[in-house]
Amino acid sequence: MNLRAFHIVFIVLSTLLAFGFGVWCLGFRPQGANGVYLGMGIVSFVVGLGLAAYGTWFLKKAKGLGGSLWE
Questions:
Q1: Fewest CB atoms within 10 A around its CB: which of 25, 31, 62, 64?
Q2: Is residue 70, in this structure, part of any structural domain at all?
């Protein structure tokens, strides 16, 4: 696996982790949390959207560089 392929896998896993953490934060709000978990969940979703946008941009750019992504 070359560096571009590793980068794509890493971005996909990071995006899934950000969305998963956001879902967990919104589902797990203990009494007296004062909105901390809600704030972390919203920030996690924003970060996940940013990572998804970056991943899309990187895929377009990586395809234009030529060569196989998975060599």
A1: 31
A2: no
